[in-house]
Design goal:
Layout lengths: L1 E7 L4 H13 L1 E7 L14 E2 L9 H8 L4 E5 L1 H14 L6 H8 L1 H10 L7 E5 L12 E5 L9 E3 L2 H18 L8 E6 L4 E10 L2 E10 L12 E4 L5 H18 L3 E11 L2 E8 L14 H9 L14 E6 L5 E7 L1 H5 L4 E6 L6 E2 L10 E6 L3 H13 L2 E5 L7
Parallel strand pairs: 1-2, 1-4, 2-3
Antiparallel strand pairs: 5-8, 6-7, 6-8, 9-10, 9-12, 11-14, 12-13, 14-18, 15-17, 15-19, 16-18
Helix pairs in contact: 1-8, 2-3, 3-4, 5-7
Length: about 400
């Protein structure tokens, strides 16, 4: 039986889905997480505990526990970094620690893309303790180097907005606490006009195979960049999709990624395709439900099986990450039956819990839940998601501030 190490931050939905897929495929999984090493298997999943911030200390013990390993899978950005270190220690084919680390650092990634001649915005970084009077170009976007999913990302169109945005991001990062060197910096980039896309792929020996291109039909122009709807397959013309794929392949090579799943964010306008970010992992969380058979492809690929002929379900599909709006203390919702009744809607999943404090972007890092749809065309998928969302009503009690 083939064996894989699966690195994940916690036992969430995606971890469970991959574990179940491995069981169907006859692949044994050893889960590696950053949970407390003192507790004796609190989740009952026989996971190996490891401190993600200092993984090198656990490598010898992990090697002894794992034994013979045929492949490595990582779910999440930080787990991918630890997985790369473990792969190097165990001699298992995977991305290098340097390439995965570059994915997680926006400044380092931009340097790689620039050296490769990719189309990208102007950029520079500022230390948190600096007090810049303004940006060198407008409109611009301010980004924390180490956060993901648009958290802390703010557009500024003038000096006053820039100063306010810088202070707001500094407050957020101070609240979170610096865990890595990159947490001490804010990156400033010129704003890129255009439509935004996500590309899901698998890399073999440095070569990218595109599994899906997601359209993001809502304009993402700021001041914050909360993602809502993903639909696939893309409705863009063949030449636009080709430009996105070519740019994604160049970005993968620029970072030095050689193996495993990737999630890539891009923009497109009259100048062509622009690379935003590359993550050395599959699409996150519940959103992965849109891509049926992706887990099978990732797992088979990890243990060395040729997956070039395995295709995802081609049925048009999509997901809405339900935005929080003004936020507050969550007190339930109405309209689930009405939302489920919309033609094309597959599921309504509300992840918010009663009494939970829901914080919108740019400080927040979660959604109220997810809507899933499948239909005959991507346009019908989008319409179903929007209609279902309109039928939901969420209730909040107000709070005094969004960051303690």
């Amino acid at each position: 039986m083939k064996r894989v190490l699966m690195f994940a931050a916690k036992s969430g939905y995606q971890t469970q889905v991959y574990a179940e897929a491995a069981k169907r495929l006859g692949i044994e999984v050893l889960l590696v997480t950053d949970r407390c090493h003192v507790l004796d298997d609190p989740w009952g999943d026989h996971a190996f505990p490891i401190r993600f911030e200092k993984p090198e200390r656990s490598m010898s013990a992990l090697a002894a526990r794992a034994g013979t390993v045929d492949g490595i899978v990582a779910i999440g950005d930080r787990p991918a970094c630890v997985a790369a270190i473990a792969a190097q220690h165990l001699g298992v084919p995977y991305n290098t620690p340097e390439s995965v680390a570059a994915c997680r650092n926006k400044f380092q990634a931009r340097n790689c893309f620039e050296h490769a001649g990719l189309r990208l915005p102007k950029y520079e970084r500022f230390a948190l303790e600096e007090t810049p009077r303004g940006a060198p170009y407008y409109p611009c976007v301010l980004k924390p180097l180490g956060l993901s999913a648009s958290r802390g990302v703010i557009r500024a169109d003038n000096d006053a907005e820039f100063t306010a945005a810088f202070a707001r991001i500094r407050k957020l990062l101070t609240h979170l606490g610096a865990k890595e060197e990159q947490d001490h910096f804010i990156q400033v980039e010129s704003f890129i006009e255009g439509r935004e896309f996500a590309l899901e792929g698998i890399v073999t020996n440095g070569r990218l195979r595109t599994l899906a291109i997601f359209d993001k039909p809502d304009p993402l122009n700021g001041p914050f960049f909360e993602e809502t709807i993903y639909t696939t397959p893309s409705r863009e013309p063949a030449d636009v999709q080709e430009a996105l794929v070519i740019t994604a392949q160049k970005a993968v090579r620029a970072l030095g990624l050689t193996r495993g799943p990737v999630h890539i964010e891009l923009r497109y306008n009259s100048a062509g395709a622009w690379i935003l970010e590359v993550a050395a992992r599959p699409i996150g969380g519940l959103c992965s439900r849109v891509l049926q058979r992706q887990e099978e492809i990732v797992l088979r690929h990890a243990v060395g099986v040729d997956v070039s002929t395995i295709e995802l379900d081609p049925t048009p599909a999509g997901v809405m990450m339900i935005p929080i709006g003004s936020g507050g203390i969550y007190q339930g919702f109405e309209g689930e039956a009405a939302a489920r009744a919309v033609e094309g809607i597959e599921d309504v999943v509300i992840t918010a819990k009663d009494g939970q404090r829901m914080v919108p972007l740019p400080e927040g890092s979660s959604y109220l839940g997810f809507l899933f749809a499948r239909a005959a065309t991507p346009a019908q998928v989008e319409a179903a998601l929007r209609t279902a969302h309109q039928r939901l009503r969420f209730h909040f009690a107000t709070v005094l501030s969004v960051v303690a």
